[in-house]
Amino acid sequence: MASESSAKFALRALSHRNYRLFFAGQSVSLIGTWLTRIATSWLVYRLTGSGAILGFIGFCGLVPTFVLAPLAGVFVDRHSRHKVIVVTQVLSMLQSFALAVLALTHVITVAEIAALQLFQGVINAFDTPARQAFVVEMVEDRRDLANAIALNSSMFNGARLLGPSIGGILIALVGEGGCFLIDGVSYLAVIASLLAMKLRLVERRGGEKHALHELREGFHYAAGSAPIRAMLLLLGVVSLVGMPYTVLMPVIASERLHGGAHTLGFLMAAVGLGALGGAVRLALRRTVLGLGRTIVNMALVFGLSLVAFAASNQLWLSLPLLAVVGYSMMSQTASTNTVLQTILEERMRGRVMAFYTMAVMGTAPFGALVAGALADRIGASWTIAGGGVICACTAAYFATQLGRLREHVWPIYRRLGILPEVAEGLRAAQDVSKPAA
Question: Which residue stretches of 252-314 are H helix?
Fold first, then answer.
């Protein structure tokens, strides 16, 4: 009975019909997305054999997010998030079909891949903040918000687990073009789920202020909040120097571990397995209290596990290390998302989640570009290890700031009615421990 109760608690966000529809459709579509990711990486490496080109393709896919996400956040705050997501999913489907046609007719070039990656990057710049902000409209009970975010992460990383492992097999069976075609078809599931939703009308203010004014307003709001600023900075550093390990994975699979596409699939699946474990752990949490410590600890573990992975030249050792990488990466990212979504003001949600998107995805292209160039000079392993060291050192610094940041977060939690008795009890304990005046 206890296990049944825990399972029900961990899935409580699925009691909301709209979120349940979204979860079902997105679960199918994300597997297709991961098929395309692994197929694209392997296709580029097969065509060029260059780590630098892999880094450049990664740069093309992510740099539009860095450039456009802030303005996309303003756009999301002004317009229906539901309609924005429907449009972005349709465009993403067309992008996958374009890749499929070019690959299946054997005329695809690196330049065409780069152009289509840029196009997908523009789509993602609008889709990601809209998707993040849309969660609160699908899950109206704020108490279930953290669970919905954790389930989103579980869904994403479940797809990360299945997609690459299936992709490694499908690349051998039907080629990269077949993977792109399957991905295009999979978008029909999420589009159908979005169209089946019944949403209450949410009034969005029009352009009462200039977009640049609203952008500055959102920036000042995020920069002026010590907790928001700290979480975004830590996440940005980790994404910049740590996340490019994914771009170099084909090099590691081929040169370090002497494998093929199936080896790359196993490595990516190991990351997904660890990340799925982290998401499940967060889904079982009953409180947001303590997530600040989780964010810092997981960033530290992420950095150290990257260093260990970079030193490994055995598949049996690399797989569990990548599971730790995935677990810690997802735990930090989802915990940051949860705390942000909890403490920020609704009118700023789209803009702040756009900054979150920039931190997660917008900094990564520059890291991918640098990592690709460094990999050709000093090797992929040394490049990954260097990024891990920087992640660990940054996390250690932010660990020293946790006490100060809690003082900013607790008043917000009390105002929202989140665990007031715990926060007050901890504050009272601190007051008692102080010497009398």
Answer: 261-283, 291-311
